[in-house]
Fold this protein.
Amino acid sequence: MTVQQTKAISICRLCTAGCPVEVTIEEGRAMKVVGDRASDNYRGYSCSKGRGLPDLHNRADRLLQSQKRQPDGSYAPVDVDVAIDEIAEKVRAIVDEHGPRAIGAYMGTRVGDHPAMGQAGPGFMLALGSPMRFSALTLDQPGDLVARAFHGTWMGGDTRLEDTDTWVLVGTNPIVSHQYFANNPVGRITTAVRNGCRLVVIDPRATETSKHAAIHIQPRPGEDVTILAGLLALLFAWDALDHEFVAENVVGIDELRATVAPYTPEYVSARADVPAEQLIAAARIIADAKKGGIFCGTGAAMSNMGGNLAFYLGLAMHSLRGWWAREGDPFLRPNALLPTRPSKAQPQNPFPVAGFGEKLRIRGLEGGIYGIPGAAIFDEILTPGPGRVRALFNMGGNPLMAIPETSRAHEALRSLELYVTTDVSLSNNARDADYVIAVTMELETAALSYSAEALTHMHRGMGIEEPYAHYAPAAVPPPPGSQLIDDWQLYYRLAQKLGLQLNVITACGLPGAWDVAPIVHPLDMEREPTTDELFEIICADGRVPFDLVKQHEHGHVFEAARVVVGPRDPECDEHLDVGSDFMMCELDEHRRGHDPSVVAEADAAYPFLLIPRRDKGFVNGTGQMVAKNLAKRSYNPAYLHPDDLGALGLDDGDVVTIRSAHGSLVGVVGSDPTLKRGVLSMSHGFGGSPADDADPLGRGANTNQLLSLTAEFDRYTGMPRMGAVPVSIARAARGADQVRS
Ligand SMILES: Nc1nc2c(c(=O)[nH]1)N[C@H]1C(S)=C(S)[C@@H](COP(=O)(O)OP(=O)(O)OC[C@H]3O[C@@H](n4cnc5c(=O)[nH]c(N)nc54)[C@H](O)[C@@H]3O)O[C@H]1N2
Ligand SMILES: Nc1nc2c(c(=O)[nH]1)N[C@H]1C(S)=C(S)[C@@H](COP(=O)(O)OP(=O)(O)OC[C@H]3O[C@@H](n4cnc5c(=O)[nH]c(N)nc54)[C@H](O)[C@@H]3O)O[C@H]1N2
Ligand code: SF4
Ligand SMILES: [Mo]
């Protein structure tokens, strides 16, 4: 008997690329996923993670029912409505006694799975009146927002990669991460390079992306600021500025020139361990490029406490070279489902970074343009006194594993009066929760390209470049016998039970930058909307009517919605600032505070620098089983250069103890000839709970055990050092893989 197969179109939301996919379905189960060849914007592109969606959905440990922790620590199924009633009662009691600040939320990457979560999650917190909305954003690349605040924004946006002479990529590997050029990064980069674009890649590892580079600078980790300042110093020395653009739009030139001047090729070469000629050759490419771009990524952010200065110097390079899109150029990321924003060939002044957000009780941190520092979450839970966070809602993240200092995470989460999470398995993080609400997965719920589009506001270079939109209904039903809800329904129903009004806010800008008046749509709190009804409201003020979007099964680039960059307002008197006092002070301090003898001493105690990396098979803590199918192993190797392995007397696969000044882990080494010597490259998102036995060859190890939230952190975002972390590596004592981590 042949099993009948059907096909459906959906959108993969595992990463921010949002590729349209074709799902092959048998008996209600997703069996196969491929890129949708009928898509006009992605043209069949997908990656191994997306093609692994069936593995994710059909996983053996899939949660079919919500769970409640029992007094003995075990979990028992609970009816979801009963769970929501109980949670609402507990929230009410905590708010009555301690006020809304006692309720916190943490937003992670899986919030992107459900477009409505971007509204329902924060909307619930807003309605409660709690400012304690933490997110992974401040443990990622908050420097992007901070830098834009100090520099100002160009209202015309970026130039399209394919139209440029060069692109500089600092600590980002878009061919794997899809963070930039997301609708087929490998195809787009290959085409651009073939047409004459010369890539400059700065990365301690030879990556999938650096293969396409005209110049690959392979520095000591954590020296991005040094290198970028060195490149800028050369541009000044050669007078390679776009003088016309600078005269009209840019201030702070003299300050920047003076501050980068000491970053000579000799200084940069010695400090960052790169050949001076290579730096000069890279600067030559940049100086010669009439059109170009620069993107920084997590490599630059993790190693520089969020990367404020690295991202800022990147923007300064853009502005000195006049690389921004000009009048008549295509206006990238014009939005389709969201309202548009003005597109003019003119600058918008810098805007405040902080000083307007919630004051935190620890380390002098406060909220700002980046939200609330995620790095403060555990201390806000553990520090006694008024304002203490007593209940936490985890919205699609993994606070246990993704935030530095895992032992503190475990302690904090366990100390909560109420910890509620949504999840699709009883994950390491879920096993700290009082309630685990079992939710639908991507293919089981309707999809919309809205989340990818909204990212335009969050991070320069993300978002959808074309006026493209896509809606797809659920492709498969939830698993038989399950009782699942969509993540957003948890927050709608809680709001309903607590008598709160939820709103959808369609127009959104950046406070102080794109001052778009919010358009607020109150939801009907009597009758729960369907996901589609909610989408309709979310798209109510969009540029392309939702009905029209729905008519295009494969998604569509709406030609009529294309925008070109408009002219400058004659009365515009705003500027981009490349010499911000704060940033120049930090840049000066970056040089003055550097003492080679202190570095040498640290190198002697901890001879390797740990850096992060993304891998093909998983996104942070999601998809490890896809990775296993691809790589035939389920752990995250601690990659070292083969010569370093040799010098340590280690072989690929040996179990080692890795120590930093702050903690240790038991890991498994892997050989990686693409690495610079002295670098330990390891992915996060692996490992068990601190309550579990170490399992380096099974679940892998969690690099956040090696990090400290307090030793070094950014004064604004609180982001701690998460890259270029000094570590030592030694063969583990026998049986170390059996002991507790
Ligand atoms: N496959 C996959 N895709 C993902 C994710 C995933 O886990 N897996 N995660 C998603 C998320 S949450 C994010 S934020 C994005 C991140 O996207 P990216 O920032 O592009 O992340 P990576 O691909 O790790 O690229 C970072 C690069 O920085 C290099 N690096 C490390 N330290 C340094 C340093 O000190 N200086 C410099 N110059 N380079 C350094 C690393 O070797 C690595 O090649 O990716 C997203 N996409
Ligand atoms: N050491 C170190 N730490 C890092 C980083 C690093 O490079 N190094 N990167 C940082 C970055 S860039 C980011 S963005 C953060 C990511 O931080 P988070 O977003 O907090 O971490 P994730 O692992 O993505 O969390 C996703 C969790 O959701 C659950 N889950 C899986 N599938 C689903 C689903 O379909 N629905 C729901 N509701 N839940 C699901 C799983 O428990 C999974 O662990 O990590 C940060 N932490
Ligand atoms: S994981 Fe990202 S790049 Fe891969 S198919 Fe899904 S959306 Fe596309
Ligand atoms: Mo991220």
